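New to this. Help decode the following:
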Amino acid sequence: MFFKNIVVHGIFKRGLYGVVLIAIGACLGLLAAQMRNIDEPEDKNIIVPAEETQAPSFQVSTQREMTALKSTNVEWKVRFLGCGHELNEKPAFDITGMTEDQVKEAYSDYSAKLFTSANICLVKEDKGCCPEHYVLYTAKDANKLELHKRDENTFEDSVVLELDMDISKLDDETKALMHDGMMFSSLREINKFMESIEE
């Protein structure tokens, strides 16, 4: 009887281990199936209509266009092609709230050298020389020379001095140069030039 209880007890114990192992296996199987379902779509038999699979015929821009802010540092410059200098101009216009394209359209004589929300640099080209230089031209009157200089604030060109001179005595090359305008950096340079052509 004692041996019979031991045998029954051993069988019961083995059966219990078997049930526990089967339960653990089932749990692991369910877990693996759940992991596979995360990676795969739930229903592979769904048919998507053709209109939904086609790309739209236009693209919507998600980026906002850069505009000039009240806090933006805006520089207006003039590049003088005659001497190569570039000088700051007094702020000409208020461009707050404008995009680069709007600025180009409104102020077509300027080009944007730099356009960010922090700094904007707008440059206008001028064929002449900057206010640091004098320019000597032949006047409409054949016996005169005109000395031109630009205003330091407005950059407007004006005649600052007229010189009497018989232009006919000059060689053709010098006449051509003076017709287009000869650039000088100082009055002393002009005096030296005038002395050289009078000899």
Observations:
- The radius of gyration is 44 Å.
